[in-house]
């Protein structure tokens, strides 16, 4: 089962600056070989269900290992059986109709 | 690694009434032997990470098998290494200080 | 426009114990006269859109005033035009079919 | 109070294809003059609290007016008092440390 996820992990108890922890998660996700893209409020990830959720678990383990005693994570997660759809397809299904402004790169 | 999750699964493409699908998910979670409680906008689940996320995957599989072609799910997920905390502890840490109104039962 | 919301506010930069901040938010919501109920991973709130979101803004203001330099909040928010539905109705539409375990009180 | 939001609106009861509704929301947000960027699982929006949440309310009104009887929305919402931070700053605080892959544009 293929899944598209939006992951937003918030370390708690380590002060206000959390970017080092997000960098570590990006590395975990990249090392898993998963398609992903960072935006201003999370990271989109695409892949097989088991691979994606194994990577999310490793993100929690990595952030705890860095010293964060508590983690709060939000996951949006979409599956569909009617057809294949990639992250890029989802964005294009909107921008092709609207000229919507996409995330900067 | 113990986790407390708030799960909110939304089947798409099956009309506005979704309670049959939520009932099916409740059964999946109960069959997994996981501590859980339903509220008006989701279900809290408590357990070992792998057990909880295996149950969430089975919820997606069950809802697709019932005919929903597309599913959108929100998961809030908390882990901590500083101490053990149950769902009941979390509620009581607030209500003991405030007399806050708890979910009806 | 009536709305049912699930609110989960996380103060950042104030350590791992956040219950005092949640207690303050419960008071803001109660003072607004909004129907609400606490669960282990948030608070369900029911009311008119403008009243509910004004209260959520006041929660942010109150938590910042208590000293939290940063806040991360999750909101699930449902509206419908086909019929009236309360938080209690939502829970009962599931429990009446399943005997699901509801949140403790 | 400045806010950065991640908005994900899901119309329910209108079938599996929801891109027309997302296009309508993009137009509402653009017409409000708010900085925003679309990604594969939502739209980041930046602005004053009242302006951003007024636009989100108009999105719900617009999507109901298009015929969706029910809407489920997820909002992640961040405020901070310690310093100003834009959506672009948030992405750059991570990418400058990691070479993380950003959302395509």
Secondary structure blueprint with pairings:
4 copies of one chain form a homotetramer.
Chain A: E1 2-12, H1 19-31, E2 35-39, E3 42-48, H2 49-65, E4 70-80, H3 87-98
Antiparallel strand pairs in A: 1-3, 1-4, 2-3
Helix pairs in contact in A: 1-2
Task: Summarize, please.
The first copy, chain A, is an alpha+beta fold and 105 residues long. Chain A is 40% helix and 32% strand. Chain A contains 3 helices and 4 strands.
Provide the descriptors you would attach to this structure in a database record.
homotetramer; 105 residues; alpha+beta; four-stranded antiparallel beta sheet; 3 helices; globular
Care to describe what's here?
Four copies of one chain form a homotetramer. Chain A has 105 residues and is of the alpha+beta class. Chain A is 40% helix and 32% strand. Chain A is built from three helices and four strands, in the order E-H-E-E-H-E-H. Chain A has helices at residues 19-31, 49-65, 87-98; strands at residues 2-12, 35-39, 42-48, 70-80. In chain A, strand 2 (35-39) and strand 3 (42-48) form a beta hairpin. Chain A starts with a strand and ends in a 7-residue tail after the last helix.
């Amino acid at each position: 089962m293929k899944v598209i996820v939006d992951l937003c992990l918030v370390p708690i108890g380590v002060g206000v600056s959390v970017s080092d922890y997000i960098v570590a998660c990006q590395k975990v996700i990249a090392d898993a070989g998963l398609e992903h893209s960072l935006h201003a409020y999370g990271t989109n990830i695409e892949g097989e269900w088991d691979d994606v959720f194994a990577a999310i678990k490793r993100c929690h383990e990595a952030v705890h290992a860095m010293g964060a005693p508590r983690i709060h994570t939000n996951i949006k997660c979409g599956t569909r059986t009617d057809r294949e759809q990639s992250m890029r397809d989802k964005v294009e299904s909107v921008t092709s109709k609207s000229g919507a402004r996409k995330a900067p790169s």
